[in-house]
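Lab notes, practical 5.
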Amino acid sequence: MTHYTRADLDMADRHIAQGERHIVQQEQLVTSLRLKQLPTAAAEAQLVTLNATLVQHRAHRAAIAEALNVALNAALNATGRRSGPDANLPSCT
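Output from the prediction step:
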C-alpha cells in the first residue's frame, strides 16, 4: 500500500499546472508555425504527447486524493469519529 501525504497532492497539482502551461505554449507554437507556413507535424506530435501526459497527471492526482481520503476515513473510524456529509450530525446510538 502506498502512503501519500498532502505534499504529494500539492506536487501533483503543480505538475498539472505546469502541464497546462506547456500545452498553451505548444498550441501557440503550432499556430505560429502555421502562420509562417512552416511544417507543424513535430510540434503537433509533441502537443499530443503533452495532452496524454496531462491526462496521466490528472489520473495520478485523483488516485492520490482518493488514497488520502481513504486514509483519513480509516483514521476517523479508528477514533470513532465520522467524516462525510453526515459527520456533524448527532449520532443516533
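Observations recorded by the TA: The chain has two helices and no strands. The two ends are 33 Å apart (CA to CA).
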